Amino acid sequence: MRDANPQTIYLKDYTVPEYLIENVELSFILDEEKTRVVSKLTMLKNPLSHSQDSTLILHGEGLELIRVAIDEQPLNETQYQQSNECLNIDSVPQDKTFIVEIGNTINPKANTALEGLYLSSTMLCTQCEAEGFRKITYFLDRPDVMCSFKTTLIGDKDKYPVLLSNGNKIAEGELQNNRHWVAWEDPFKKPCYLFALVAGQLECIEDSFTTMSGRDISLQIFVEQSDIDKCDHAMQSLKNSMRWDEQTYGREYDLDLYMIVAVGHFNMGAMENKGLNVFNTKFVLARPDTATDSDYEHIEGVIGHEYFHNWSGNRITCRDWFQLSLKEGFTVFRDQEFTADQTSKAVKRIEDVKMLRTRQFAEDAGPLSHPIRPDSYIEINNFYTLTVYEKGAEVVRMIQTLVGKTGFRKGSDLYFQRYDGQAVTCDDFVSTMEEANDIDFEQFRRWYSQAGTPVLEIEQEYNQQLKTHSITIRQSCAPTPRQPAKQPLHIPIQLGLLAADGSVADICLDDHAPCKEILIELKEQQQTFVFEKLEERPVVSLLRGFSAPVNVKMQQSLEELAFLLSHDTDTFNRWEAAHKMSSQIIFGLMDDIKQGKDLELNPLLVQSYQTILQQSWDDLSYLSLLLSLPAENYLAGQMEVIDVDAIHKARVFVEQSLAEQLQNQFLELYQRYHKEESGQFDAGTIGRRRIKNICLGYLVKLESTESYQIVEEQFKTAKNMTDQMAALAVITDSANPNKLMCLDSFYQQWKDEALVIDKWFTLQACSSSDDSFNTVQDLTQHPAFELTNPNRVRSLIGAFSQANQLHFHAANGQGYNFLANQIIALNLINPQVASRMVSGLTQWKRFDENRQSLMKKALEKIINTPDISKDVYEIASKSLVPG
Ligand code: 0A1
Ligand code: ZN
């Protein structure tokens, strides 16, 4: 039953913990339905607390309490009180350490919320971040209470031959009744959100890593037996991550053992538990025939992310959950740079910015907009957002841009050294960067407290007589919930100038030495920068590398964009020029559609594509990005009132026209690289597959018998999942008469591989075919669909509502109603995942009146459901706030 008036928690109310835990000894007698937990806490009053209260308040939810004792004296029921969320123990010692012993039971099988201890197929595992530990036993479940853990696991030898927890294995033995036990000790103090246990019939692959100081670390990846042949890439990724963190940040791993376990039921991507990461199978398992090139890349990225948390998150953690971006923003930045180093810097930056601009910018402009350090929440699980993670990473990136790479390393060294073993704040991080670089970040700190995406309006003026070019930049930021007025931010803007012949122009600005590229720092609401000694009007390349998470408004003609596409030396801005050019053309066509005009493709786009196709490219993944049109949801984000039908129609028209006019070039490229397919995974081969499949996508837009033959042939003969998936995606989205046959044969081929079947659901959920809504509805009845598996829910319901703009937003509201019903069905099963699904409805203000009212109706239906969880309630109710 929902708490009628869920409580809001505020950052301003933070106080230090009243009690501390020195260490904890846990023992678990594992059982699917009734696991017994015994916890022995060595505690003391926090010397920093001013509270005079001698009541000890421990967090605990859904626990069956058996016994409480203090210093070996069992307490009777008058000496403590239990509520839904706490256990209050009266009169604990104030002037000495004391021992609290608690016995309780939990039911992992009934735990479909997947928080605390739960069952994933036959294995038992835990998820404790953010506040899951309190669902295991009573504790001070807050990140600033750090202690050492000793954990003993007892279980049946057949059901749970493998028993894992954090740290090092210190002892094991046999017991009666076919049971055994294993004891683990983690010497590093940690908050309880980093606790983990796993028990099950698991197989493992093993390897080792020698650290920079010469220590040998044993590495183990545990999976179900049928997946043991899909772990090699994850292991290699782990070793790459360990080496990279040594080389880039001077960070060495601390324990002697690093374990990763892959589980099929998981609410998020993965979890950085100390020495025992628990991963969604999606980010571990890969074999060339089951995983695509982008799966391979994501696995490496997520393995890196969790590994990097060992320093940025575990050894130095967050004081409170408002500081989440301290560990997440920094760690995402670290994993982005890692992937950039392992793959292509240009491509990685573009992919990250694409995601940020379509999804985080939408979040920042909507009713749930919040700063990267939020100042209030109802349910912390709702704040694992794109803003905290992705914008948080952009803020860290801006710090690096402002202090330079060397300065950033100086700052991070000082941060790791100074705060090792502590729970700290975002402000501690910023202050350390300031101190190490002798710089003032007073104004920069606003990025942590101010929500919303700033807009930069640019005006330029060339003065022929003075030979100067002035750039005036005005910054503004629209009001966001509870922040009506915004203050100017400190914004780093990387900039270059191009001469009319396409060469790089010298930059002469104020007293800076002449240079080829410059970092200007915008601090005022409006500032003018005057560039001198320019014989002719330059073309400006602004915000290179996307040096700040802002929206830029600058008049640029299609000709100027074509010029930048040919000549800009900055790989990001070169792509940006192509992207802007095609966006402008699509918007022009949308106007034509509205006015009932015949559509015609601007020849400049074809010419630009032709030029690109004639050049020779080392990085074919980058070329693929240049030849890809902006996504429908990106285009939507640029519109005052989103018109999903016009966006789709105009975009498809451009695709088809390009396909018609460049058919020979696309076919030639396709055939060249298809012939060369080697099935390898090096950057070159991946690039060839990528460009080949982009060409295939265009060719099938011709809807010709020949193109259908090509794509079906690729589908049938593909040796790897990238090619098979690319072909099936194109088929599913086309009018190909063999579509159902192909989908069915794919299902038959892969029905035992859960992650591949997720892809099969997603393809159909994202299809632009007219029947896709009915297909999605039917698929909810498919025997392979289940609401208890988050990956399945995301692959069908999530994909349809978040990635099928055309059909989810059908004008009759059937998509909205469908989503509301699915959320209501999921609400009690898994509130966290249910709440994430609400995001399909939160952007209602961006649509026409008819859709607005249908979306609001769906949100109201959700809120008015009895027993709505506070997770879903928070998102749905905040979404409905007018303004
Ligand atoms: N800290 C993890 C993400 C994570 C957060 C919450 C979870 O359950 C509620 C699970 C994982 C990361 O950043 O990878
Ligand atoms: Zn993380």
In which order are the strands of the major sheet placed? 6-5-9-3-2-12-15-14
Q: What is the averaged pLDDT score?
A: 98
Radius of gyration: 28 Å
What's the tally of helices? 27
Whole-Å distance between the termini?
30 Å
Q: How much of the residues is beta strand, in percent?
A: 15-25%
Spatial shape? globular
Structural class based on helices, strands and sheet pairing = alpha+beta
Low-confidence stretches: none
Summarize the amount of helix as a percent range: 40-55%
Described by strand count, sense and barrel closure, the largest sheet is:
8 strands, mixed
Write structural notes for this entry.
This protein is an alpha+beta fold and 883 residues long. 41% of the residues lie in helices and 20% in strands. It contains 27 helices and 31 strands. The strands form 8 sheets. The protein has an 8-stranded mixed sheet with strand order 6-5-9-3-2-12-15-14, with no helix packed on it. The chain has a 5-stranded mixed sheet with strand order 17-18-19-21-20, covered by helices on one side. A hairpin with a 2-residue loop joins strand 5 (64-70) and strand 6. Helix 1 (232-249) crosses helix 2 (293-308) and helix 23 (814-827) runs antiparallel to helix 24 (831-837). The two termini are 30 Å apart. The site of zinc ion (ZN) has 4 residues, from helix 3.
